[in-house]
């Protein structure tokens, strides 16, 4: 896929480099030539231009771009102007980064396709992982339902999925289990790499090093992990 990322701050540069590493074509835009030069060898393309200038943005290959993401965080005015310009230019999909409730309200009013709040979202995920012992990561699907990665509580080690009976007792589904797997690196050395075992069966047994991937309400997941 082809992406345009506006803003080469920490968030924008990290996203640009990761998408490039994944094999996507990325055009990263910033008005600071020093940043453009800094990342020119780590991103597919870097361009120095002012995203507040609609005429300058029109010179980009917008019709061939699948997603435009405005990741400017420190300059509220520049972010809003860039989003408004891309909206008027009719890009296929427009994502805006909000750094405050007011910022989000303005982006909603402009009519972006999606709003992201990376700082808030990370804080929420971190809070959940700190709130309960065993939670490694979380994903909010809705306000009520979550997907959680958590270590297996000791009382369930050696039990099968059927014996643990999470669905009946707690209304929770075990989506899969992430289990260390022996693997060999390029130098022929053996090491353990986490891998999902696929769809679990009723007779799948929980092992001590397993990571459960659970789906359900946070209040129910809390009961399992406490």
TrEMBL record:
<feature type="domain" description="RCK C-terminal">
    <location>
        <begin position="136"/>
        <end position="226"/>
    </location>
</feature>
<dbReference type="Pfam" id="PF02254">
    <property type="entry name" value="TrkA_N"/>
</dbReference>
<protein>
    <submittedName>
        <fullName>TrkA family potassium uptake protein</fullName>
    </submittedName>
</protein>
<dbReference type="InterPro" id="IPR036291">
    <property type="entry name" value="NAD(P)-bd_dom_sf"/>
</dbReference>
<dbReference type="InterPro" id="IPR036721">
    <property type="entry name" value="RCK_C_sf"/>
</dbReference>
<dbReference type="InterPro" id="IPR003148">
    <property type="entry name" value="RCK_N"/>
</dbReference>
<dbReference type="InterPro" id="IPR050721">
    <property type="entry name" value="Trk_Ktr_HKT_K-transport"/>
</dbReference>
<dbReference type="InterPro" id="IPR006037">
    <property type="entry name" value="RCK_C"/>
</dbReference>
């Amino acid at each position: 896929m082809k992406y345009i990322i506006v803003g080469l701050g920490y968030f924008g540069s990290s996203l640009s480099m990761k998408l490039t590493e994944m094999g996507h074509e990325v055009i990263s835009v910033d008005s600071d030539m020093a940043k453009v030069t800094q990342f020119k060898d780590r991103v597919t393309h870097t361009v120095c231009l002012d995203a507040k200038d609609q005429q300058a943005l029109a010179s980009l290959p917008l019709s061939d771009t699948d997603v435009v993401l405005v990741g400017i965080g420190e300059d509220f005015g520049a972010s809003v102007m860039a989003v408004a310009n891309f909206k008027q230019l009719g890009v296929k999909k427009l994502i805006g980064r909000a750094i405050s409730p007011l910022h989000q309200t303005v982006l909603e009013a402009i009519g972006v396709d999606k709003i992201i709040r990376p700082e808030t979202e990370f804080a929420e995920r971190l809070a959940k992982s700190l709130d309960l012992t065993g939670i490694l990561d979380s994903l909010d699907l809705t306000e009520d339902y979550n997907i959680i990665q958590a270590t297996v509580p000791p009382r369930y080690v050696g039990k099968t999925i059927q014996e643990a009976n999470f669905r009946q007792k707690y209304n929770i589904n075990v989506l899969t289990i992430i289990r260390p797997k022996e693997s060999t690196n390029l130098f022929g050395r053996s090491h353990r790499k986490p891998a999902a075992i696929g769809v679990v069966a009723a007779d799948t047994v929980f092992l001590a090093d397993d990571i459960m991937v659970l789906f359900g309400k946070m209040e129910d997941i809390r009961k399992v992990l406490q």
